[in-house]
Write a structure and sequence with these properties.
The chain is an all-alpha fold and 602 residues long. Helices cover 63% and strands 1% of the residues. Helix 4 runs parallel beside helix 15.
């Protein structure tokens, strides 16, 4: 156990430096991301180890699977990055929830004394487990900032100290361990390779690839870096390299730790060199066996109490991810329900795997992998195979098969008309397709708009004409030509004919004859303002731009009458910048929504 802890710390430090600093141009995303052994692999590795006979022999089989899965991840990284559209929130949310729920029995077993000497009726074990949990909760309730983030560590320390008088803390290993020790490759023997174990671990790495992608995107937003498929591929290569290194140095699969993403947001320390320095510290600690022995001395009930909090939090993250899923669509209910049901079935009745062939026991003998395979498979079945007539079919103006066959450039051109200026949002939406119906496509457009980096959002805002420029230079005449601040059609958006030509979108010129009917609808209402109102609105728009640095954007079709429009402009001028950034995005989303309805002509 001491050697495993030191090996993990040592390898974790190397992995974090690889991810934060990078190697060449292809490995490492160069963001403040800390690496750690993934929770997703715990149950599958236990199943692999037990199937191989347990003990050292089980470990060597685990390491063989880890090494191969790491290599597969490394070389498949660019292709995996393109397959992530098959892992929408309905899949990732289910998988993360399954991970948390399936690990809770492991925490509960530790809380009652551990697998080797369980004693559920022992009141001391119960008191230590619940006491540790209570300390963690109290620290998070009372303190803020850094102290709240180390609540679990504080709970482990306080719980261990409380267990000392009862003789539950065995520190003999600390005295017997050396001060300095280096983890040696293949310490437990040469790795053994089992096809079933390898396939199971590859499934684990595909799941962690989704987790890594979410962490990279979230961190990119925090530090203001735009994240693309190449960045995701570099992050996954680092995961693969670290995982293979872990198998060689007696550790396990590595991934970006979501906990560190929250810490970056909380502390606002976003330098990747801070993570690199932390990696250096972990390497140093990994060279001190006494540190590993100290960690190994933590009593099982204390560890179980802390694990209850950590694993339950993982499940909560999954539930939070599922809030983005539209459960009015019964297909999503089936995907989530079946995934959770199968995962808990295997978790509660692990012996059911004995009814399967030997190779399938390793792949499906873990609740995590079984539930994940079901969720991924059902998502492919319901959303990526065949056609489904139910729901909102894509209208005749743009046929369903036409959208499905659109290349990235054509799709971006057609649906780029939802916005006033150039934006990568449509291209990112295309990467998530194909979509089963227009509601799913529309939701993807909105999600990508709000998930875009702040700098990208500000740039898009700058392309929208403010109301002041429109009312002083002339409003839309209702002919269908998009009108800009100077009274002319914005470049690349001139209508071809009158507004009535909006439905003429057939053949290869799909979208070209949109005519910007939506644009003139959005603006034509300004012509109804009187001279005094126009002057006031122009003054408000000028003050708004001076205060916030971007135009006053209002969806006129939802703005109400003259008085409501002016009242909205006055009120928004008093908002703080962060709130107004969000308000401008909402208005852009409203305009895009109306234009979407015009484009697909329900």
């Amino acid at each position: 156990m001491i050697h495993l802890i030191n090996a993990d710390l040592f390898t974790c430090g190397i992995a974090s430096i690889i991810q934060a600093v990078g190697i060449g141009r292809k490995i490492g995303v160069r963001l403040p991301l800390l690496q750690g052994v993934t929770f997703t692999a715990v149950s599958p590795m236990i199943a692999i180890g037990l199937a191989a006979g347990g003990g050292t022999e089980g470990l060597t089989t685990i390491y063989g699977a880890v090494i191969v899965a790491g290599l597969v991840t490394f070389f498949a990284a660019p292709y995996v990055a393109r397959l992530l559209r098959f892992f929408p929130p309905v899949v990732t949310g289910t998988v993360i929830t399954v991970i948390g729920l399936a690990l809770l029995p492991v925490a509960a077993q530790d809380a009652v004394g551990g697998a080797n000497a369980p004693d559920p009726g022992n009141p001391l074990y119960l008191a230590l487990a619940l006491g540790t949990l209570a300390v963690i909760v109290l620290i998070q309730r009372i303190f803020r900032g850094f102290l709240a983030t180390v609540a679990v560590l504080a709970g482990l320390v306080i719980g261990t100290l409380a267990a000392v008088p009862f003789g539950l803390v065995d520190t003999s290993g600390v005295g017997e361990s050396a001060w300095v020790g280096v983890t040696t490759p293949f310490h437990f023997g040469w790795p053994q390779f089992s096809l079933a174990a390898i396939l199971s671990m590859i499934v684990v790495m595909m799941i962690t690839a989704v987790e890594t992608t979410g962490d990279v995107v979230a961190t990119g937003e925090i530090v203001g870096k735009r994240v693309g498929p190449d960045d995701v591929a570099r992050a996954l290569r680092a995961d693969g390299a670290a995982t293979t290194l872990g198998g060689v140095l007696n550790s396990f699969p590595y991934t970006c730790f979501a906990e560190n993403v929250g810490l970056v947001r909380l502390t606002r320390v976003s330098s990747r060199w801070v993570v690199a320095a932390a990696g250096g510290f972990m390497i140093l600690i990994g060279l001190v066996p006494k540190a590993g022995a100290l960690v190994a001395a933590v009593p099982h009930p204390v560890l179980g109490g802390a694990a209850l909090a950590m694993f339950a939090t993982v499940a909560v993250v999954g539930i939070q991810t599922l809030t983005a899923v539209d459960f009015r669509d019964h297909r999503n209910v089936v995907v989530v329900g079946s995934g959770l049901g199968v995962a808990l079935f295997v978790t509660v009745q692990p012996d059911v795997a004995q009814a399967l062939p030997g190779w399938a026991q390793i792949v499906l003998g873990s609740g995590i992998t079984a539930g994940s395979v079901v969720a991924i498979g059902l998502n492919l079945l319901f959303f990526h195979t065949g056609r489904r007539p139910a729901g909102d079919p894509v209208p005749a103006g743009i046929a369903a098969d036409r959208i499905e066959t659109m290349g990235r450039a054509e799709f971006a051109d057609v649906f780029g008309r939802l916005f006033e200026g150039p934006t990568p949002v449509p291209a990112r939406v295309h990467a998530r397709g194909p979509f089963p119906d227009t509601d799913a496509l529309r939701a993807a457009v909105q999600e990508e708009l709000f998930a875009a980096p702040a700098g990208e959002q500000r740039e898009l805002m700058g392309h929208y004409p403010d109301l002041g420029g429109l009312v002083t230079s002339g409003s839309g005449s209702g002919t269908g030509d998009g009108v800009g601040p100077d009274g002319r059609a914005p470049a690349g958006r001139a209508g071809q004919g009158t507004g009535d030509t909006a439905g003429d979108t057939a053949g290869d010129t799909v979208g070209d004859a949109l005519g910007d009917r939506a644009v003139s609808r959005d603006r034509a209402g300004l012509a109804l303002l009187g001279a005094d109102d126009r002057d006031e609105l122009a003054a408000l728009a000028a003050s708004y731009r001076e205060r916030f640095g971007f135009p006053l954007i209002v969806c006129l079709r939802d703005a109400g009458d003259r008085a409501a429009l002016l009242a909205t402009a006055r009120r928004r001028l008093t908002h703080p910048p962060a709130q107004e950034h969000a308000a401008a995005l909402v208005e852009i989303a409203k305009v895009a929504g109306h234009r979407f309805d015009d484009l697909v002509a329900r």
